[in-house]
Prior knowledge:
- The chain has one domain.
- By secondary structure, the protein is mainly alpha-helical.
- It has helices at residues 2-28, 36-53, 58-81, 89-111, 137-159, 161-171, 173-178, 183-209, 215-230, 236-255, 263-274; strands at residues 127-130, 133-136.
Amino acid sequence: xxxxxxxxxxxxxxxxxxxxxxxxxxxxxxxxxxxxxxxxxxxxxxxxxxxxxxxxxxxxxxxxxxxxxxxxxxxxxxxxxxxxxxxxxxxxxxxxxxxxxxxxxxxxxxxxxxxxxxxxxxxxxxxxxxxxxxxxxxxxxxxxxxxxxxxxxxxxxxxxxxxxxxxxxxxxxxxxxxxxxxxxxxxxxxxxxxxxxxxxxxxxxxxxxxxxxxxxxxxxxxxxxxxxxxxxxxxxxxxxxxxxxxxxxxxxxxxxxxxxxxxxxxxxxxxxxxxxxxxxxxxx
Length: 284
């Protein structure tokens, strides 16, 4: 049982890193980017190509995956996304879902439709015993890395000048520009970092979640569920929601295999009935 809880915690922390960029763009920038999973897929493929084909050490490929997708996010934000900030949510949804289908078709053409297998280094394989509990080494690594990222993100968004400027830019862009805040730059940086985090999550999750051209479509709903359940006013909500959903998914598939992945939808409905605004969102 404790082993299952540990695996669920690792899965939840991975969901958080994959989803936190969407929580930022949707919650703090008020922009619906359904193509978020495409950046995660891109980061996964960067890591697989570097590790399996080029022989680059896995740990070195992680920052490269983050930077590659962050740069891609910055370029696309300037060229495609920025004009949509003032558009309706429907326009944003239709545009971003179109990008998803383009990315799926493009990756399928370039890389093929087969599942990609990530070759982890030896020191991240196997299991170890911690107080009699069988713990997967790679899952422990995920918990440490993702937990550190969650702490850093929360501090940046709540305790730094950049975080306060971002919140001010979202609340009232005209006033923010009037007091000297470079709103366009703030949004561009935020979008790039969110894309980079998605890419990092895709790189970290390639071994557990699997990686193929349909990745953005398969996990789009998961990202939206994390944001919906956790709320978008801080990083604490998505973090708690990710852990809750990760543990529920693992336990549900183990104890009630007939329901499969439906357990997380039960959790979603239950939370939204009790807290329609999300676990950690301000009411009203």
